[in-house]
Design goal:
Blueprint: H1 2-14, E1 23-26, H2 30-39, E2 44-48, E3 61-63, E4 78-84, H3 94-104, E5 105-114, E6 117-119, E7 123-124, H4 132-139, E8 146-149, H5 153-156, E9 164-166, H6 169-172, H7 175-180, E10 191-195
Parallel strand pairs: 1-2, 1-4, 2-3, 4-5, 6-8
Antiparallel strand pairs: 5-10, 7-8, 9-10
Helix pairs in contact: 1-2
């Protein structure tokens, strides 16, 4: 997938060497799992809300409810968080979720992720009784609780990383470099933040 190719090159080029803290990969995809477990052989952790759905993963998976990150990760205890198309599935207050994940990362830690864009403006609805076809229409998929907007993601999500350096992908990669990886700066753009020390 295009987003997986983009995430691979970002993780390859922008992530630091391992330390003693875990690198947590939510809803793992095989190619990224293989890369991260090779780069962080002693500290890589696969995680998901429903680990049983990942029978193909040949290592222990941690069960994590990302609606309350600090119940699973102590402050300053994680080197990195990695996930693709996860935030739209997590019920709860997005501001609190991101802030708690930020607290869990140690100084110098990283958060690499991508999100889908399905609307101009952010919207969400936590009512799980909503019919699937209505949720498909509003959020792009029956199990999404929110849709990120192309016009306000900076305000709604990216501005929550207050104590982080954001890597500008338009400066990190030229169009030719992205084309060589069969990807581009589109809605599949990966966001990479590094917590300031």
């Amino acid at each position: 997938m295009e987003r997986t190719r983009f995430m691979y090159i970002a993780l390859r080029d922008l992530t630091p060497p391992p330390n003693d803290l875990p690198v947590v990969h939510f809803a793992p995809e095989m190619a990224i799992l293989e890369f991260l477990s090779a780069k962080y052989p002693k500290t890589y952790r696969a995680a998901d809300f429903a680990p049983a759905e990942y029978a193909w993963v040949k290592q222990p998976m941690q069960q994590v409810d990302l609606s309350r990150p600090l119940d699973f990760f102590a402050p300053n205890s994680v080197q990195g968080f990695v996930h693709a198309h996860v935030f739209e599935h997590v019920p709860g207050d997005l501001h609190r979720i991101v802030k708690q994940m930020n607290m869990a990362l140690a100084p110098g830690g990283f958060h690499t992720f991508c999100i889908p864009f399905f609307s101009d403006w952010y919207r969400e609805d936590m009512n799980l009784a909503m019919p699937h076809d209505e949720r498909d229409r509003l959020f792009g998929q029956y199990d999404h609780v929110r849709s990120f907007g192309t016009r306000d993601t900076e305000e709604r999500l990216l501005s929550l990383f207050e104590d982080f350096e954001r890597i500008d992908m338009t400066k990190a990669y030229s169009p030719a470099q992205l084309a060589a990886a069969a990807t581009s700066l589109t809605s599949h753009t990966v966001f990479h933040f590094v917590k300031k020390k």
